[in-house]
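4.2 Preliminary Data

To establish feasibility before requesting continued support, the project team ran the inverse folding procedure on a target of 764 residues. The structure was first converted into the token representation described in Section 3, and no sequence information of any kind was made available to the design step. The complete token record follows.
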């Protein structure tokens, strides 16, 4: 979520008033804003996407709740010591959190372990351990529409009789100390992005958020006029018409068996009716196609922690496989491929398969990704129910990612086309008629230059390096991962360095290359990549022949509040994943909206950015998905490229020989060995095209006017990438609710008594 103060002032239309009032008190609002900690309750794009979605849902007047865990410690703070990443705990609640309100009156029990007892009256899950879920509510204001939605985060609390109702009453002190065991559930965020770690505590977290949330939703449904009771029992027929639940990846997949458990075991619905309601309630968003990221929980672990849920999953699977066998008799391989249970040394539950079977809609997050989901990853399921599979291209909120972080540009745009674009970003197309307006071109360039000077001052303060603000700011910020190919950027830096040294007199377009992002603490290769970038920076930044032509900076502790500073100052956005690996990307959209040009592969949403702006207005290079597939078929041989490309050979040899690590010449052996022998992401295969494309970038940068015109064409084409558009598509195609642009009256105005306060429609 990042910081809340400035976003709240903007959405309430109070920023100028607050700035002025605080100034009158002799304080500086910007200084005050810098004191607030980021709420870093997610890892990368998936978590930030949810935050943008909350802003858009409130702005579109949808009755929507965001549910998650109130981690005591969020994503770690990254320190760089001697070029290495070091993790520190993110104690973000140390000084309290003024935006949250604890709601103990809505506390709910969550059960773990125990056993299942079957009787004539049905299954009973008994002898369980109980943990309480305490909700904390954070308001989510819409933009200038007097709507305030809720983000409800659950915190784990031990019941007061925890460990005291047992036989060990003798050790009262130990029993109280053991409360920590239960409360550890919401202690810390697992810091993996695009990687599955099958730990028991993680599964507990996933079930904890799901069980508490579903009880909350059902409590709200029963209290509404729709949860009519038929003598004793609630009638749930209208449940899917009143409730839509969107699963943000497979992490909350246990919601499917949990809702079935509630309906069948507790509410005593017949299985078929319960299953029909469940499927119509859930929809699933897939966020990655990387096999190592797919959640596959060991059956033994689920059986121990959630024995009833395992039985329900088996029953879902049995009925699912019976259905497929009836359609494809004797096709045992299809049954194996489509089963929710994977056989092998350890039996595992494929959570993506569970989500597909238990949902009425499945979507990818960019056109190319949704195609890959349909035709490759889940092709058997798509063949069975093609109408279930959809695309919903990701977006970003223009409130935080333009108004808040780039007020100069936002104001300049408003002068030309009015202020309405903030709620309807498609209006940016009106900027096309100013592409040749010399004054506008100069003003756009001036805003960018001011942002660069401001960020350069920040860098000089934080990193003690002199930055040339007229140099091209070449920025690569995102989680560190092999598929995102920070290594390819690094090879380009080394190549530029070698060219400067080879011919110091030759014209060179000055660059400041900024790379930032966190590596998962257990991801050895990602940590080596960070060390390599810092080792290269050390050499480049201290070579007198290079001077101010080339500077390399590793941005420490990249997070939302730092993104808000660096993105408006960027000239060139690096989006260079191997085609077919980045589901969408959203940083790419933020840079586009803030007047940077993109160098990128035809991957994720880059494809649609090129479609909107015209491919000639992005720097597109490298293999397409088809080329990658073909190269896999032939077999990728890194040595071939190394032998054929002298500049690549030189760069790799320098890394290998210890040129960048003279005290430890073998330091980067693992990296070089990976590049030659098991590089799944084919860095060498795209190196030549990347370097040539970078030359075109430098050439255009020399012509400031032509560069800025291309920038304007990009901004004018960025409208599609508003999360408002994305949410309208979810609302219409999946949730079946209509967004409303009605501004509800402010609380100080009396409401029209005739108005129905709860307009009919689904809550998402």
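Position-by-position output of the design step:
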């Amino acid at each position: 979520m990042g910081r809340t103060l400035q976003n709240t002032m903007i959405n309430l239309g109070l920023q100028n008033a607050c700035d002025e009032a605080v100034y009158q008190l002799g304080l500086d609002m910007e200084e005050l804003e810098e004191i607030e900690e980021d709420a870093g309750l997610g890892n990368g794009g998936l978590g930030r996407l949810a935050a943008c979605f909350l802003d858009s849902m409130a702005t579109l007047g949808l009755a929507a709740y965001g549910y998650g865990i109130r981690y005591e410690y969020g994503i770690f703070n990254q320190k760089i010591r001697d070029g290495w990443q070091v993790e520190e705990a993110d104690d973000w609640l140390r000084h309290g959190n003024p935006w949250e309100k604890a709601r103990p009156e809505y506390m709910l029990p969550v059960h773990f372990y125990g056993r299942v007892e079957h009787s004539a009256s049905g299954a009973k899950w008994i002898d369980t351990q109980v943990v309480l879920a305490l909700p904390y509510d954070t308001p989510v204001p819409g933009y200038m529409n007097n709507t305030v939605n809720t983000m409800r985060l659950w915190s784990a609390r031990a019941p007061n009789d925890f460990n005291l109702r047992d036989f060990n009453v003798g050790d009262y002190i130990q029993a109280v100390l053991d409360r920590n065991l239960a409360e550890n559930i919401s202690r810390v965020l697992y810091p993996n992005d695009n990687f599955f770690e099958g730990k028991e505590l993680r599964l507990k977290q996933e079930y904890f958020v799901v069980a508490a949330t579903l009880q909350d939703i059902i409590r709200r449904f029963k209290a509404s006029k729709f949860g009519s009771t038929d003598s004793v029992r609630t009638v749930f027929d209208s449940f899917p018409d009143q409730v839509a639940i969107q699963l943000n990846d497979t992490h909350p997949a246990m919601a499917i068996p949990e809702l079935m458990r509630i309906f069948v075991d507790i509410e005593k619905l017949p299985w078929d009716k319960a299953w029909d309601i469940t499927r119509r309630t859930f929809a699933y968003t897939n966020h990655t196609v990387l096999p190592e990221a797919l959640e596959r929980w060991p059956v033994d672990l689920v059986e121990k922690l959630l024995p009833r849920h395992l039985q329900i999953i088996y029953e879902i699977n049995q009925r699912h496989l019976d259905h497929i066998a009836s359609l494809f008799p004797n096709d045992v391989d299809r049954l194996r491929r489509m089963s929710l249970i994977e056989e092998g040394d350890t039996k595992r539950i494929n959570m993506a398969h569970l989500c597909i079977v238990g949902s009425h809609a499945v979507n990818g997050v960019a056109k190319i990704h949704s195609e890959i989901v349909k035709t490759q990853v889940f092709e058997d399921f798509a063949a069975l129910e093609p109408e279930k599979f959809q695309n919903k291209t990701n977006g970003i909120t223009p409130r935080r990612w333009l108004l808040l972080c780039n007020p100069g540009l936002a104001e300049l745009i408003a002068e030309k086309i009015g202020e309405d674009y903030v709620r309807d970003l498609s209006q940016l197309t009106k900027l096309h008629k100013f592409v040749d307006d010399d004054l506008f071109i100069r003003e756009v360039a001036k805003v960018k230059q001011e942002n660069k000077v401001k960020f350069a001052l920040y860098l000089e303060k934080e990193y003690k390096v002199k930055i040339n603000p007229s140099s091209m700011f070449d920025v690569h910020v995102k989680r560190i991962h092999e598929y995102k190919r920070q290594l390819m950027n690094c090879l380009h830096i080394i190549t530029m360095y070698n060219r400067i040294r080879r011919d110091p007199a030759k014209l060179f377009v000055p660059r400041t290359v900024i790379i930032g992002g966190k590596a998962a603490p257990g991801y050895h290769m990602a940590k080596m990549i960070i060390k390599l970038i810092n080792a290269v920076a050390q050499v480049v930044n201290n070579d007198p022949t290079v001077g101010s032509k080339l500077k390399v900076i590793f941005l420490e502790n990249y997070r939302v509040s730092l993104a808000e500073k660096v993105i408006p100052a960027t000239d060139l956005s690096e989006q260079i994943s191997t085609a077919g690996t980045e589901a969408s990307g959203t940083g790419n959209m933020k840079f586009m909206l803030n007047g940077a040009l993109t160098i990128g592969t035809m991957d994720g949403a880059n494809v649609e950015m090129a479609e909107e702006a015209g491919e000639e207005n992005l720097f597109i290079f490298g293999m397409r998905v088809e080329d990658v597939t073909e190269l896999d078929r032939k077999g990728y041989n890194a040595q071939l490229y190394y032998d054929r490309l002298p500049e690549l050979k030189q760069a790799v040899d320098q890394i290998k020989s210890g040129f960048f690590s003279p005290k430890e010449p073998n330091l980067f052996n693992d990296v070089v060995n990976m590049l030659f022998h098991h590089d799944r992401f084919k860095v060498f295969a795209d190196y030549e095209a990347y370097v040539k494309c970078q030359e075109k970038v430098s050439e255009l940068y020399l012509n400031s006017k032509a560069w800025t015109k291309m920038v304007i064409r990009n901004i004018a084409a960025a409208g599609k990438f508003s999360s408002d558009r994305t949410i309208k598509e979810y609302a219409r195609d999946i949730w079946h609710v209509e967004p409303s642009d009605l501004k509800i009256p402010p609380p100080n105005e009396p409401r029209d008594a005739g108005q129905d306060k709860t307009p009919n429609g689904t809550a998402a």
